[in-house]
Amino acid sequence: MIGFLASVGAAFLGFLAATGRLVNFALMGLAALFSPPFYPRLILRQIVYMGYYSLPVVGLTAIFTGMVLALQSYTGFARFNAESAVATVVVLSVTRELGPVIAGLMVAGRVGAAMAAEIGTMRVTDQIDALTTLSTDPFRYLVLPRLLAGLVTLPMLVLVADIIGVFGGYIVGTVKLGFNPANYLTQTESYLETMDVVSGLVKAGVFGFIVALMGCYHGYHSRGGAEGVGQATTYAVVSASILILVCNYMLTTAFFGK
Amino acid sequence: MNGTAPKISVRGLEKSFGPKRVLDGIDIDCGVGESLVIIGGSGTGKSVLIKCILGLLHPEAGSIRIDGVETVGMRRGDRAALMRKFGMLFQGAALFDSLRVWENVAFGLVQGRGMERAKARRIALEKLAAVGLGAEVGELRPAELSGGMQKRVALARAIAAEPEIIFFDEPTTGLDPIMADVINDLILKCVRELGATAVSITHDMVSARKIADRIAMLHKGKIVWQGPAGEIDVSHNPFVDQFVHGRAEGPIQMEVRAV
Fold first, then answer.
1. Which chain A residues are closer than 8 Å to B88 by Cβ?
2. What is the pLDDT of residues A92-137, one digit of tens each?
3. Domain tally, chain B
4. Of the N and C termini of chain A, which has fewer Cβ atoms inside 10 Å?
């Protein structure tokens, strides 16, 4: 029994220590924001890489999500003669939940993994130590631009994903399910509130920060050559995905919980 | 070492990784303009020692003084200023593969010191010329270079900001004997031209004999011998004799497990 309690206690202490290291890492990254030198070109490059180049994958995911959502909600609501709610369900689901979560998960897979692999390779090949010996703070040069890019870019991506996702639902609703286009748009508009979109964008900012933080943190602490970099990449994607889902619940509770 | 205050002074330095004590009370000095070479087998703590001096690793105990200033426990801002005195050639070159060769060489000037890119590029091309590489190489990516060329670029990067102290981590490892000699010559030339203090770690005795004013031997986290490079063959130290002659028998036992 004591052995069991000891192992639970050790696991809990390990969890607290890991959380402390992660928070410390994030604060060290953000602290670089308050003193020069700044690297605006690097921030811009990360924004382009994280945002522009993620548009195809996020757009494709969003349109098919909106289309499936329209089909499935129609199937369900038809049983209660409530088909007219399809447009409302699609727009609320996409803006509040599916847009930010799916964009966050896709960016975690595409960008978080790449960040961990790039920074991890720099770590195991001494490039991060080289940065330090060249009077360049790795947190300022590598971590901060990525954190800022994550924070800024994902809301923009989610805004695009919201529009595309709702459009996907509109296409299925009007072409396949026979809704009147004008009625569908009226239904979409009349039940959509500013808070629905804003809450999704706030979530997106948090998710973008999480993706960048996990990519940087696991890459920065990778050890042991190619295997270590591979592990860092896996940890970055898995931990970012789990944190996105957990934070999504917490933020939904904060915004809409009674 | 001459009678002036040492450029680098290390006292009682200790560093462990988990239960393994890698540095166990290191005492060593390096004088101004001196070339100190630290020899020792793989895994004896040579790289850890210079990473502690550079501030890349934090020792558990001991003192490291640069120009008489204590650097252990130094604040980040002071450490950043101290870094300007250092140049470092890493074992694997550690070139930034996302940047072109000249950008690698100019990196410390542009990012670390805020120099204008055009001026930094001119200096980078001069340094590349100093290590025998033409301007056309400056436009290539590190992945397009051979191992010897990468080492030369790394040397150019290490000397670009004309540091007071240059560290060389296994500068000739993985190179053929001719290229290794070219690198040794370049190290000698660059260090002499700059008047810099040099600390090198190697297990290549040819390289050590060529570039060292003084040699120290590290074994199991301790300095077991140090003296002028010319005395390495008459040290009468059993550790040094075994290492210099590359004998399997002697006081240094390789930790080999049966499979």
1. 129-130, 133
2. 999 999 999 999 999 999 999 999 999 999 999 999 999 999 999 9
3. 1
4. C
